[in-house]
From TrEMBL:
Residues 1-34 form the signal peptide. PROSITE patterns: TAT. It comes from the Bacteria. SUPFAM superfamilies: alpha/beta-Hydrolases, Galactose-binding domain-like. Keywords: Hydrolase, Signal. GO terms for molecular function: carboxylic ester hydrolase activity; dipeptidyl-peptidase activity. This is Acyl esterase. It comes from Streptomyces eurocidicus (Streptoverticillium eurocidicus). Belongs to the AB hydrolase superfamily. Residues 313-523 form the Xaa-Pro dipeptidyl-peptidase C-terminal domain.
């Protein structure tokens, strides 16, 4: 009989895969759109053909090509769409059709190692970047694509490949990267904590829909087994696949880059995107919305109205066609709160959390490790999707949390609403009884009855510490936009177990103290 936890994980992977494939199939339905001239898309319907495209290293990539209707011999701007992890070439059909009806040549292809494309899964390695260049070469030779106006876009895996390609191929002038990553290590190994559910989900989907390379299988095995002797290899592997590594090249090439992500992305959290955005020097835009991984742009893959794809098209129209649609005059950082309301605009990411209030975390708390207290960050892909559509984040009764396994601090009730925007920062002093340990910090919005709604959280892992010797910890919780209602409190909760992550506690206790010379605090970015 299969172990219940393994069976649950396998079922989750299978369900996620089925949902993604169903979405791709539904995405083939065309959606009515109006062209800039006011004519219906049907008046100049694009043609589509499925074709083999030569990839790098002699492999074949399965792709499709959408060409604008009414061919008159002129050249059209080109958009290349690499598929997401585990997705086939049907993924972008609905959006590709709409873009082609608007005058773009669109080439989408199944990333190497997945489905019927050749090769093995290299996880956005050099071969994947070489594939994107080969696809552009092919498109320029076999379609009416304009070599001076080339863009790339993608969701998740396709976003990462697009950003990496912008650092290696000067022909790419524009990128729209949705739910992707800039720093792969910070995304799945932030604060030296393995993101268990994210890694298992990606690994499971990879095996179900493709052919993982030996390197990928080795890295995943070492990652999940907590083999610290292999940490250096993993860090080097991740750096090679991180757009942030090639920031200088991306800036030198000057592509106009739009980044979109969700506050609750459990695979690629938004903070690493925001840091990358701040370091870009070319035309740029950052959009953050409620949701989980790829859920913000998911309806667009079905051909339904979608803000992410709509702004992506405006970005392409301006930077590839020269359309004066005003997107270059808007404040480039666009945020939407998880608790409702319209878009908020900012001149840069630093302006988002410029105003802060500091809460003292007084006294000493000692917890036993290795027991799940009930406070947790939810379930990958599920919890933050519920928050996006139903405003139901993970919840817990703060008064009922077992104090033997949780450290808890609470503010007083706020007389007015608190608009939390950006990254909450926790500073404290930790003393462990072992040389390694893991703690997870949570921030809750606590109502009058003690029910806490998760605002943000982050894990922290330490290794090689002298048992019994205190050390300072600075931890940034995942960035968010959340409005705490008047009369509610904020509660900081720390425990040692969360199903999202691999823990490194082997018994013993963790003590959180606030020395007089270095008091523990919570810095909350609050806007008036």
């Amino acid at each position: 009989m299969r172990h219940p936890r393994k069976a649950l994980r396998a079922s989750a992977v299978g369900a996620a895969c089925a949902a993604l494939l169903a979405g791709a199939a539904l995405g083939t339905a065309p959606a009515a759109q109006a062209t800039p001239g006011g004519q219906a898309a049907a008046a100049r319907s694009a043609s589509v053909r499925f074709t083999d495209i030569p990839g790098s290293g002699g492999i074949t990539l399965k792709g499709n090509v959408f060409t604008p209707g009414g061919a008159d011999g002129s050249r059209h701007p080109l958009i290349v769409l690499p598929t997401s992890w585990a997705m086939p070439q049907l993924e972008y059909v609905a959006q590709a059709r709409q873009l082609a009806d608007a005058g773009y040549v669109v080439v989408s292809y199944t990333s190497r190692g997945f489905w019927l494309s050749g090769g093995q899964i290299e996880t956005a390695g050099p071969a994947d970047v070489a594939d994107s260049a080969a696809v552009i070469d092919w498109a320029l030779a076999h379609t009416p694509a304009d070599p001076r106006r080339i863009g790339m876009a993608g969701v998740s895996y396709g976003a990462g490949i697009s950003l990496l390609s912008a650092g290696h191929d000067k022909r790419i002038k524009t990128v729209v990267a949705m739910s992707g990553w800039a720093d792969l290590i910070e995304s799945i190994y932030g604060e030296r904590t393995q993101h268990r559910q994210a890694a298992e989900l990606l690994g499971g989907l990879g095996k179900l829909t493709g052919r993982p390379s030996d390197e990928l299988q080795r890295i995943l095995k070492n990652f999940l087994s907590s083999d610290l002797s292999k940490e250096k290899e993993m860090l080097e592997w991740g750096a090679k696949r991180s757009p942030a590594t090639y920031l200088n090249e991306i800036n030198a090439n000057g592509a106009a880059i739009m980044l979109g992500n969700a506050w609750g992305d459990t695979i690629f959290p938004p903070d690493q995107y925001a840091k990358f955005y701040e370091r870009l020097t070319g035309p740029k835009r950052l959009e953050l919305r409620p949701g989980d991984h790829a859920t913000a742009e998911g309806t667009g893959l079905l051909g339904l109205p979608n803000d992410v794809w709509a702004d992506g098209k405006r970005w392409f129209d301006h930077h590839l066609k020269g359309v004066d649609n005003g997107i270059d005059r808007e404040r480039p950082v666009q945020l939407k709160s998880r608790t409702g309301g319209g878009y908020e605009s900012y001149p840069d990411w630093a302006a988002v959390d410029r105003t802060r209030r500091t809460l003292p975390l007084e006294g000493t708390r000692t917890i036993r490790t290795g027991v799940d207290s009930g406070a947790n960050g939810g379930t990958a892909l599920l919890s933050n999707t519920l928050d996006q559509f139903l405003r139901l984040p993970p919840m817990v009764s703060v008064p009922l949390l077992p104090r033997a396994y949780t450290a808890v601090w609470e503010s007083g009730p706020y007389p007015s609403a608190q608009r939390v925007r950006g990254s909450v920062r926790l500073h404290t002093t930790v003393t462990g009884e072992k040389e390694s340990g893991t703690a997870i910090a949570y921030l809750y919005d606590v109502g009058p009855l003690g029910l806490g709604k998760l605002v943000s959280h982050a894990p922290y892992t330490f290794h090689g510490r002298e048992p019994g010797r205190p050390f300072a910890v600075d931890l940034s919780l995942v960035a968010t936009a959340y409005d705490v209602p008047a009369g509610h409190r904020l509660a900081v909760v720390v425990d040692s177990v969360d199903p999202l992550y691999v823990g490194h506690n082997s018994g013993g206790r963790l003590t959180f103290s606030s020395p007089a010379g270095d008091p523990s605090t919570l810095s909350v970015p609050v806007r008036g």
